[in-house]
Amino acid sequence: MPSRQGDTRKERQVLQARQRAAEKADKLIRDGKDENALKYLLLTKRAERAVDPLQKKLADNKALCEDNPGPYIDYAEGQEPSADEAYRLCRGCPVLLECARFAIAYAPPVGVWGGEVYIDGKTQDK
Ligand code: SF4
């Protein structure tokens, strides 16, 4: 049985890898290279598990934000929408649940995902 100390070290390594992947993915998304960004998102197990249902759902459904660079809504730094605006933007999106689940797994550094505003991987309080 692994020790608690070993578990904690492993958790820290996973978090660091996830953070590095998120930073790389964010830069690639900002550069308009979403396909490459996806490779980095897949570096994390949680994101890997969550991206599959999102991709499958996107194959059959049109996201409300389809004209954005990816299945999320970007905004200029410091100009994030309010929580209510984010909710309204995504309300009725057929992939909302999958998008929200993916965002929880990926902890995106920026953007509106699944009706929530994310800044530095955290949702903003309503
Ligand atoms: S839930 Fe919102 S951010 Fe996600 S795909 Fe739909 S419209 Fe885009």
What secondary-structure arrangement, pairings included, does this model have?
Layout: H1 4-30, H2 34-41, H3 45-60, H4 83-90, H5 96-106, E1 110-113, E2 116-119, E3 122-123
Antiparallel strand pairs: 1-2, 2-3
Helix pairs in contact: 1-2, 3-5
Proportion of beta-strand residues: 5-15%
Lateral strand order in the biggest sheet: 1-2-3
Task: Give the tally of structural domains.
Answer: 2
Q: Report the average pLDDT across residues.
A: 79
Overall 3D geometry?
globular
How far the N terminus sits from the C terminus, by CA atoms, comes to: 42 Å
Given helix and strand content, the structural type is mainly alpha
Q: What's the main sheet like?
A: 3 strands, antiparallel
How much helicity do the residues have? 55-70%
- Tell me the total number of β-strands: 3
What are the low-pLDDT stretches, counting only 5+ consecutive residues below 50? none
Rg from alpha-carbon coordinates: 15 Å
* Ligands present: iron/sulfur cluster
What is the tally of helical segments? 5
Order of helices and strands: HHHHHEEE
Description:
The chain is mainly alpha-helical. It has 2 domains: 1-60, no CATH class; 63-126, no CATH class. 56% of the residues lie in helices and 8% in strands. The chain has 5 helices and 3 strands, in the order αααααβββ. It has helices spanning 4-30, 34-41, 45-60, 83-90, 96-106; strands spanning 110-113, 116-119, 122-123. The protein has a 3-stranded antiparallel beta sheet. Helix 1 runs antiparallel to helix 2 (34-41) and helix 3 (45-60) packs antiparallel against helix 5 (96-106). It is globular. The N and C termini lie far apart (42 Å). The model has no long low-confidence stretch (mean pLDDT 79). Residues 63-65, 71-73, 90, 93, 95-96, 99, 112-115 line the site of iron/sulfur cluster. Iron/sulfur cluster (SF4) binds at residues 63-65, 71-73, 90, 93, 95-96, 99, 112-115.
